[in-house]
């Protein structure tokens, strides 16, 4: 298809989409409406289950099975990237060279790394109480660890990030979520049903199954993102391209993925 | 105009698709896909908005306060996670395409290879 035909096809489709979408929008409930039937029921169910953060209750209790699917997508995508970005037969591994780093950058990174990891752990641990949870906190944990790369260099990152351990933790997190679902079956209820003691509302140990599933997701997301970023960093820093020397696009793609 | 936030979502979607259709660089195309996907966040959060509502977290507000719809927020969270991982997977594909064919211009990728 030539460029002109493609652009024309786009404009026709865009015009049709714009008309139909606008018509559909006029049929939606008004923006800012006070009537949210699903929302009200989710809030009521969350309070009943002693989970202060309703979004966590929806994700890890009321819709836990959907989240299991979502988490499997994450696991599959990480696995896919690892397979796609493995070292090919015709590629060589080059030892990463140390680079000079400004002392102020080093100081800032060394100071922020433990703080970021601590905040990440806090966000995961308080997923059932305050905004955040396993997904958000997991990404923070993974990002915090990469301050070692930003502020020092790749060899330091490799020392603070044993990749085999995180790859195993990724699988453990995904498996723990699946296994926790069986608690419901053992208690004679449905898979992933919240059968644990619910605890006191707005306390750290509240929500029954929610904090446990949340922690499993936190471990999986943190290790998954670390493994994922490691694949891109490998491409950018370590793997040589024997056939296309002098072309930086492969490394550039890796950096885009890293940022 | 109470449908303006929804129309904004449609606009973001079209911009993203336009970018993909006219893209000359696969990394750029992946970025445009991410933009198109962002429209679903705007649409979902727009649908879940409640005038005067606050965040659906009852750790520091009394139970019974008017809150925005938590269900769509949970959906957006799912959406963000899936979007991020799909973007990562597509970028790995772009890296491999660059290595095998030496180009990231979709117009130049016309040959089928076995």
From TrEMBL, chain A:
It is a multi-pass membrane protein. The keyword Kinase does not apply. The chain crosses the membrane at residues 68-85, 106-127, 133-152, 164-192, 212-233. Coiled coil: none annotated. Residues 112-226 form the Na+/H+ antiporter MnhB subunit-related protein domain. It is found in: Cell membrane. Belongs to the CPA3 antiporters (TC 2.A.63) subunit B family. This is Sodium:proton antiporter. It comes from Actinacidiphila epipremni.
TrEMBL record, chain B:
Keywords: Cell membrane, Membrane, Transmembrane, Transmembrane helix. The chain crosses the membrane at residues 71-95. It is found in: Cell membrane. It holds the Pfam family Oxidored_q2. It is a multi-pass membrane protein. It comes from the Bacteria. Belongs to the CPA3 antiporters (TC 2.A.63) subunit C family. This is Dehydrogenase.
